[in-house]
Each structure stands twice: as structure tokens, then as C-alpha cells.
Amino acid sequence: MSALDEFYQWITTSPNLIDHQETFCDLRSLEPTSLCKNSVYTGNRRLGFIYQHLCTQAFVNSAHYQVLAEEIQLSEQGRTLGAIDLIVRNKAKQRNEHWELAIKFYLLHEGQWFGPNAHDQLETKLPHMLNHQLAMSTTAQFHQQHPELEVVTHHLLMQGRLYTNPFNSEPTPTSCLGFTLNTSQISGYWCHYSQAHQIQETLYELPKIRWATGKASDAAIITPNPERFIHAQTDSGQFWFVVPDVWPRRNA
């Protein structure tokens, strides 16, 4: 199975980072078929673009949904307001739904969840996605540009993994901004480079296409570099981020 197929399978079977509520859904109910045989991706190679493409394919491959529009750019007087990821038709419920999509990996440090790029934090990402991104389908600009797309419900698919540091003594929160975290996704570990000697297993570096699913059989052992973060996995399957000692004070 190719890395793309494995990623697609992970997306269609994995839960949301936020415990299931009406807004925070996952794609398991879509029951999508597999990717088309010999499917290839030729778009932007950044992880978020690949992720959005595969999520869209899951809706395309589901008998329960129809994709009505994707990546809708909204603007006002020449100023870009943002982009809506997906508008889909729920055939069973006969309604149009707005879905925003994000794949995120957050590391717990002093009570907050930081991305490996420390400018990205769950505590700021969630309000932005809920109050700005999902709200765009309620704006006058959206209704003016797409009067045919009357959205009934709004959904945020945020998948990924949450990481704790086993070498620090810190309680793991069970919620963020009042939203319950899916504890099954608090499954990764992270540490600073100065702590990495305490890891008892060999680390194999992961290319971004495999951040969610894990290493290939021919994965290379990491080359230590104290100036950048590394995402890796062990033979036992444990995911690790190893980050510079200055993280998150200076962005890694």
C-alpha cells in the first residue's frame, strides 16, 4: 500500500482531536470506498494540502455525500476574507454542510498545546477555526457569491495527534477552552534535545506524508540536529518529536 493510500485510510478511520460533538465530527460515517487504483497526487506537497485533498476524496467516494464546492475564495472590495474548505450535500439528511479541515500535531508544554512551529497553538487555532473559518458561510459575502448554497450545519474536522513529555512532571489536561479532548489521540511523546538520551529506542525520521500513519519499512535512523525539530517513530510504534532546547521560546 502506498503512503497516499495509508494516509487516506488513516483519515477515514481516525477520530477528531476534539471528542465527538455535533460540530466536531470525523469521516467514519461516510463509509467511503478506497482511493481509485493507482491514484496519484500532483498538487502542493505541503501536508495540509495533501490532507485536504484526501478528505475531499473521502466525500467524493461516499454514497452518503455529494461535494458541491471546495476552496471557495471570499473577498470584499478586493480584500481577501478567506477560503471555505468544503460545502457538501448530506444526502440522508437532505441538507448542505460546511466542513473545515485541519491536520494538527500539538505538544503539551506548561499547560498549553504548541505546534512544532510554536507560533501555532491549539488554544488560538480552535477559536479561529470556529469563529472565523466556519462562520464564513454565514456572511453576506458568501450569500452574495453563492446564493444557491444554503448551509444548514457547520463541522470542524481536526485530526492529528497530541504529545506529552514523559521526562517532565506535568498533568495532562482533558479539555481545551471547554472542549473535551479525545484522550485516544494523546498518544505521542516529545522531548528537548537535551533529554533525548533518555529515549530507550532507536528513532526513525518520518517524512511529512507519514506523520500521521508512521514509518515505512525502509525508514532511516534520524540524524541528530539540535537546530531543528524532528518527528520520528520507534520500532515499537511510539511517535516522538525531538525539539531544540530553545523551543518554544524561540520558534524552532
Give a written overview of the molecule.
This protein has 252 residues and is an alpha/beta fold. The chain is built from four helices and eleven strands. Strands 1, 2, 3, 4, 5, 8, 9, 10 and 11 form a nine-stranded mixed sheet that branches. The chain has a two-stranded antiparallel ribbon with strand order 6-7. Strand 3 and strand 4 form a beta hairpin. Helix 1 crosses helix 2. The protein is globular, with a radius of gyration of 19 Å.
Strand share of the residues? Answer: 25-35%
Average pLDDT reading: 94
Shape: globular
Order of helices and strands: HHEEEEHHEEEEEEE
Q: Kindly provide the radius of gyration, computed on alpha-carbon positions and rounded to a whole number of angstroms.
A: 19 Å
The tally of helices reads 4
How many strand units? 11
Q: Estimate the helix proportion, in percent.
A: 10-25%
Residue windows where pLDDT falls under 50 for at least 5 positions: none
